[in-house]
Specification:
This protein is an all-alpha fold. The protein is built from 22 helices and no strands.
Amino acid sequence: MRKYVLQSIVGGSCLLLLAGVGYFALYPHWLAYRHTTQAQQALDRYDLAQAQVHLERVLQLQPSNAEMRFLMARTCRRAANYPTANHHLSEARRLGWVEDMLELEEHLSDAQRQGPSGPNEKVLQALVRARHPEDRAILEALYKGYRNALYLNEATTWLTVWIERYPNDWLPYLWRGDLLQSFRHFDKARADYQRLLELKADCSEAHLHLGQIALANAEESETALHHFRTYLGSHPGDAEALLGIAQCQTNLHHPEAAIATLRELLVQHPEHAAGMRLLAMREMEQGRTEEAVSWLRRAIALVPNDQDTLYQLTLALHRLGQDQEAERYQSRFKELDETSRAAKATLDKILAQPHNASLRCDMGKLLLRIDKTQQAERWFLSALHEDPEHRPTHQALAEYYEKKSNPPARERAEFHRRKAG
């Protein structure tokens, strides 16, 4: 009996030991597989941040997995996290990943970061025309590169190629709709967003865009309100959705409801200048001009060169009889309005002559005058993309970077000063 009990104990212990060994041997592989699946699902949703989280867990479990290193490099590059992408691409190369894939990814990184140009541009376009197995990745990089370099017509063209080739892919409809909306081609943009919702019914971003397009026509305010509320359902407290709802309520003659929505917006986003301006307009309509001026002063302190706010502040101050101060704001408004008109005219010229470096430089200078500094910098860099030796652009960039206090900016200023001669 004792011998039987002892054998049972030993046998049970062995089984437990084998189970423990199996658990510690197999569990990490199962966990890595699970995170790989979740990363792919996130990529399918174009949730790059979440995909990186899951890929990081995979690499913690399997640091020598060359394929996952490569996928992490591509994901980081798509998210414009270039230093991290370069690190993982180097690791994938060290671990023996396919050299052709590594070289293609380097081409894609250069095109996306700097804008397609020269031999790199020709190579990528040729690969698309040859229907390379990675043509979706190439088309995405071409679109992002042209968009980042402000070649918006070219960006739209390659999205159209993507859609014609893969009409059931939802992502290019979102991006092309956004570009068309920026050109104010509202009917075409609306068609892209509606097709997007057919392919991906849970794409809440399409509802936000459709709401903005519908809001451009006051008669479509009920439709816009539906889209904004749908978007707000998955993005509670979103500032743009609340602002859109308030504008719809105004168009539908519900001023007090609009005021309540705007106050909710400013509770959640206390420094939302556009919300302050719209609230001030509603307060003026209700005869509360002094309160409106208070909101407008706060808005103009946040965004000193916002034309709409300057215009509304001028009206409110005149209404209060503070004409001298109103004239100062009106003078500034006129200056900005003239500059904005010039910028719009220059943009029309650029669309007709996309490779004219001088026009791109002029656009940057105009945007600087209305304090749109980041956009101005992008236009200057796009001018150098066309003509790396364009002296007026180097001079403008030298002056732009000299106004910044950080050491990298000072180094850039010195570089461009030398190039400007």
